[in-house]
Design brief:
Strand order of the largest sheet: 1-2-5-4-3
Number of domains: 1
Structural class: alpha+beta
Strand content: 5-15%
Number of helices: 7
Helix content: 25-40%
């Protein structure tokens, strides 16, 4: 099986990569972490077919695990992995959210069947305040991007899923740099949108799951995700 290569976005590369660089380099783009990852060579991309299809899921999961093996234990610099999909380009926010979670669920199912354990520093329960995704034994925070996002900071040219390693945020907290970076991002987001994203919260105060898609949801929203370990699958 041919696996998609992990690569840094190239200004002379495919259209999707040029779009991504242009998107991040916009003056008004609020995420200074993404800007730093791009400038420091810590931003990697994977190319995929349709967000609505499971066609690439085995290969994508394998590539995500390779990313953890190469980057999870690095103590300096920002590292982000962005999966760039060919389409669809006209999904509504709700439809994008639905298929975002389908992909995350599919990758998680493959993670479990391949014997990877959930990162012990986070919970696998999406209702838990310490929930996070886990691939290859390492925790990730996901950020959804797509053309019809209501938040301008999430409004990218095509569907994409950004995976950020939790370990880098833990390092920032230990170095007392996290709060300053978070404050800067919030200020820039307010300037871009006119308001701060109401879904944002600090890790450990509430589940991060409602933040992934970028759509505003209320307390009645239930995360369509579960991580069932192999023994649970065999029993039921």
């Amino acid at each position: 099986m041919l696996y998609p290569p992990l690569r840094r976005p190239d200004r002379r590369g495919p259209v999707k990569e040029r779009e991504l660089i242009s998107f991040i380099e916009r003056t008004e783009f609020p995420c200074v972490g993404a800007k730093s990852a791009l400038n420091q060579g810590g931003l990697y991309v994977l190319h995929a077919r349709l967000l609505t299809s499971a066609w690439n899921d085995v290969a994508l999961h394998s590539a995500i695990v390779r990313f953890t093996e190469e980057h999870a234990n690095r103590k300096r610099g920002f590292r982000s992995l962005i999966i760039l999909f060919d389409g669809p380009l006209s999904l509504s926010e709700r439809a994008y959210e639905e298929y975002l979670w389908k992909r995350l669920q599919s990758w998680t199912d493959k993670d479990v069947w391949l014997g990877y354990k959930n990162d012990m520093s986070v919970s696998s329960d999406p209702s838990d305040a310490h929930f996070s995704l886990s691939f290859g034994g390492h925790a990730f925070f996901a950020i959804g991007l797509h053309p019809r996002a209501s938040r301008k900071a999430r409004r990218f040219f095509r569907p994409a899923i950004v995976l950020n390693l939790h370990s880098q945020f833990q390092t920032l907290r230990a170095e007392r740099k996290y709060e300053g970076m978070r404050k800067t991002i919030l200020q820039r987001d307010r300037k871009l949108q006119g308001s701060i994203n109401p879904m944002l919260s600090r890790f450990g105060t509430s589940s991060e799951a409602p933040q992934y898609s970028g759509r505003k949801v209320d307390n009645s929203w239930r995360c369509p995700f579960q991580r069932r370990e192999i023994q649970d699958n065999l029993e039921g």
